[in-house]
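call fold(seq) -> tokens
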Amino acid sequence: MADYKYYWEDFAVGEVATFGNFEVTREEIIAFASEYDPQPFHTDEELAKKSFIGSLCASGWHTSAMVMRIICDGYLLDTAGMGAPGVEESKWRAPVRPGDILSVTRECLDRRVSKSRPEMGLTTFRHSARNQHGEDKMIMTGTMMIARRDPTAGEG
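ret:
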């Protein structure tokens, strides 16, 4: 097994950690939206001003991708991750705009050893993205599959 900094045993229910300092740029908003979500309030500043949003903002899908980048850089690339069965909930709470600096707070909500694969634990996290002013931008809850350091141990 590769040597990772974090294994399933390292995440305790109730634990909270904050990481990230990701600056959102106008150019990245437009580039992402032009390719994947070409609605005018994501691609054209003048049309965005006339929209219900009132100014250029990132696509929710772009926000999700930025949050995933922050999660990867914050801890996931150092974790013995084994994938995920999906996301239970994802909510875009407010538009992400150029100049926002995003950080993510991770809260461990639940964890258990897999019944069918004892080398793996399942851990449910809530990831909350906020900008530099503390404004909630996105909340995502999902379960990750993480290798156990010692599959022969109990619930650890």
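The chain has one domain: 8-147.
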